[in-house]
Amino acid sequence: MSRELTELDSVVTLQKELSKSKGSLKSQLQRAERQKQIRSLLLILPLVCFICVTFAFPIIEMLYRSVDNQSVPKGFPNTTQVMKQWDYEGLPSMAIQQVFMAELRERYADKTLPKLANRINIEVSGMRSLLMKTGRKLNKTNALPVNHQELIKLDKRWAKPRYWAAIKTLSAPYTLSYYLAALDMRYDEHGNITQQPETRQVYVDLFTKTFGMSLAITLICLVMAYPVAYLLANLPDKKANLLLIVVLLPFWTSLLVRTTSWIVLLQNQGVINDLLIWSGVTTERLAMVHNTFGTIVAMVHILLPFMILPLYSVMKGISPTYFRAARSLGATPSIAFIKVYMPLTMPGVGAGALLTFILSIGFYITPALVGGRSGQMISNMIAYHMQTSLNWGMAAALGGLLLAVVLALFYLFNRIVGINNIKVGG
Amino acid sequence: MALPSYCNTRERIGYYGYLGFCTLVFLFLIAPILIIVPLSFNATPYFTFTEGMLSLDPEAYSIRWYSDMFSSNQWVNALKNSTLIALSATIVATVLGTLAAMGLAANNVPFRNTIMAFLISPMIVPVIISAAAMYFFYTRLDLSQTFIGIVLAHAALGTPFVVITVTATLSGFDHSLVRAAYSLGANPIYTFRHVTFPLIRPGMISGGLFAFGTSFDEVVVALFITGVEQRTVPRQMWSGIREQISPTILAVASMLILMSVLLLLTLEMLRRRNARIRGIRE
Amino acid sequence: MTTPQEYVSFQHVQKTYDGENLVVKDFNLDIKPGEFVTMLGPSGSGKTTCLMMLAGFETATSGEIFIDGTPVNNLAPHKRDIGMVFQNYALFPHMTIAENLAFPLKVRKLSAHKVNEKVESALNMVELEHVANRYPKQLSGGQQQRVALARALVFEPKLVLMDEPLGALDKQLREQMQLEIKHLHEKLGITILYVTHDQDEALTMSDRIAVFNNGAVQQLASPTDLYESPSNAFVAQFIGENNQLMGEVIEIEAKKRCTVKVGKQQILARPVSVERAGEQTLLSIRPEKIMVVQEDDWYENQVTGLLKELIYHGDHHRLVVQIDGVGELVVKVTNGSHSSRDFEVGGSLTVGWRSEDCHALDCPNHAEQQGEAA
Asked: What is the ipTM of this complex?
């Protein structure tokens, strides 16, 4: 409305009427509010897109890889189709077997068989050689085997159902086999889920060890951090700030530097062993690094600040009058401390312990450098599968499981402490 | 915290025991770091204190590892790469993170907590998972073993810090200052330049320093997605530790410790300056 | 729409946040140039919202606001050329005092020479030349307040808005500042719209006061009129102290006097909000208008009761008198006219007052009216 119009009485009356009709005004106000919301969202958008592309999509892709099984269906499309008719009883029909053989020969001829054979080998070891050998033989002839005997002549193993079962299990585009393997299970020759053979049961143990070590580390950190946080919270500010530097400097020092110093300290020819021998405490050099002990010591050192800082923050907020009130009511210092002070510090304990545990189970560097063979954690296995065994599906599945655990714990952390209360660097 | 005179012997023992325990913990925290520094001056190529060093014989000390470090192509390149990557990643992280924090500061954002959780997730997810995921994805996009790839990855890892610090700064921001500026005749742009920005700058710088430190120290993602040309200092150290060839890594470690000290001091100075300026409301 | 008499004009201004509940209901106010008008009321009564609408930080959902004849509903706040003093001063913490004062001048692109000149004279005006290079944090509350005032005046606006600026100061400093602001107002001749919840402050400083409650103006009048002739129960209660008696109107005599039955007594009062006999009414009498009856005194209203309490207040006494069937009356007696020896707690006491000092007002239960007063 232009300004001249507003001068007219009729328009003024109209305005009054409009203001009385709550509906239009309410929607006007809501529209204005929504405009403000859009403006805020526009500011957030660039970062959200950036994180999506550089972080979220990769994670989603990784999770996809953990169930992706496209290679076999793509390599053996017809087999995949016809295998649906077999129900794991006995052996597949000859027709099915022939379809497979035909495609096996094709794959050998166009040289894509080795990769597929590797994939299938992960399910049942030994199948790589079986497939390569059979493929080579088939490639030399023009005719496909027409009956059972000719097939067995190519290789005896084709008489066993489990090899056929493996092929069928792998012909679904999505598979849970990686996740099953991560939990030490597999599909057997009937397509049911069973345990892996004893010799291949590694992952559950590894998970248990990782969680066990992390729990131990968290408890040790808690025991060490509690008195220190109490001291820091109750000292006068100047002294406390000075001692806080002793806590913050390790926190700010490079992870590699800290791990290096522990290697230097704990190794056979290292400073601590030198000290022990020199002071006569032991006569032999102790193996303190490249094992579980080394991992735990180094990780406690690295995670201790994460336990001290939340505890310190909570303790600083506790008024000394509670303790005094308890004493004035007749409690001894120990009782006052246990029954009054400690419960008040529980939020800090919860926050610190949860944070330490979450960080600990995801650690890679320290176990990799000081863990040796016995101090390995889940993350090291993930790296192994990525770089050495090139079993990316397995790496993805283990990563997926670890991610699920961390997210669940973090959800718990958020319920107790809240994201908005994270303070970085104090 | 002096002991009151009415304490009995058991309480005294408990008290001194507690102080002793705390001292041990403090030693545990700081000793490993401090040990590195003198060891880096070891004249012999070993990782322990030699007899000469313990008896403070000046012959037993030398700066050969430092000169090695500065004259070695590998280390100098690694330093260049690390600095360049960290700077680029920090700039990206600071700009994107500050914008997002400003958007999140308004009360009217729907799903604010969910968005916040999403933006902080790179900090929460174990870095091995991020590294694996980025490796798969970047390889597919041909970004693996490129400069841009590692910068993007480090920027993603650094933005949560900027978001957290700038959000914290904004939550204490006095909005009546903006109104005052308007009432004095300043338009929104002038107000942002002269009133809002100077007051959130400390938060931005803190966050930026965190992001820089994170990138400079980052080794796991670097392990997976850098090639030889983008080798960073931590990546180089990793090889050095694995093979433990020479105490040059101790010299590098000492330099990194020095950097941490400087970073810590800068942050502390910023915090004090910020508190002084904000003191009007404390 | 405005004659030259009004510098600021609110016309039928309404404000709602959710489209249903009105925070400000049909607000009308004309402020003459050079006038000092205070908006007074409890928290949440809408007074600050009206101030913010004038400043441009809130928009009226209906109605018009004019400054010097120009409608300003669609004018952005930074173009309105109004000085504003905020409750928490809002001094820029990262700038020195001089830089704070220079800010509005630099925005208006004045030359450096002029800027320095005006900053200096502003500092002189509030007697703070010596803190020019300090930061706000280093100043006391009172000094910060004076700087905030100087900053709002340095660019010589014609209209200044103040949002409870003295709330954070202690009593003595507050009273001192009230006088300083009043003197500045008289010296500079600017128009001031002031918001406060402190009625003493309003009474001291204003030319006119608008008393707010629940988003509506209860009465708009000079301090004297407001105090001596409150137009409804809320204003009577809010401004100054008063004794309240509930009663029923017996008869009304031509707008000058009415008879009200309170308990067993018949009280003569001045009818303010009552129209006819039989109405319930609230009688309001100021403590200082009740006199202790001496030997030859005669008052239109006279009652005898029991002296329950005698409280010493330095320059005056407060007597709490219990009147049978009427209630308790608080009487204020200055120590010039009586001394404590004249009174005996527990003894009987006769007090009296004139009918024109006793106002027959509306009963608060009936009044949610958006009354506009003279």
From this structure: 0.85
Q: Where does B72-245 sit in CATH, by number?
A: 1.10.3720.10
Whether residues A139 and A229 fall in one domain: no
Q: Domain ranges for chain B, please list them.
A: 9-60, 72-245
Residue C71 CB: number of other CB atoms within 10 A?
17
Q: Give the structural domain span for A140.
A: 71-173
Instruction: Report yes or no on A179 lying in a domain.
Output: no
CATH number assigned to the domain comprising residue A234: 1.10.3720.10
pTM over 0.90: no
DSSP letter string over A118-164?
Answer: HHHHHHSTTHHHHHHHHHHHHHH-SSPP-SHHHHHHH-GGGGSHHHH
Interface mutation vs chain C, best among A14, A19, A21, A30, most C CBs within 10 Å: A19
* B 41-100 → A contacts, CB under 8 A: 46-49, 92, 96-97, 99-100
* Best residue of A41, A44, A263 to probe chain B, by most B CBs closer than 10 Å: A44
Residue count (chain B): 282
Domain end point (choices A125, A157, A173): A173
pLDDT band for position A59 (cuts 50, 70, 90): very high
Across the interface, do A362 and B127 touch by the CB < 8 Å criterion?
A: yes
Question: Is residue A35 located within the same domain as residue A160?
Answer: no
DSSP per position, A329-391: TT--HHHHIIIIIHHHHHHHHHHHHHHHHHHHHT--HHHHHH-TTTT--HHHHHHHHHHTS--
| Mean pLDDT estimate for chain B | 85
pLDDT digit string (tens) for A406-424? 989 888 877 776 654 554 4
Q: Are residues A158 and A35 in the same domain?
A: no
Whether A239 maps to a domain, the answer reads yes
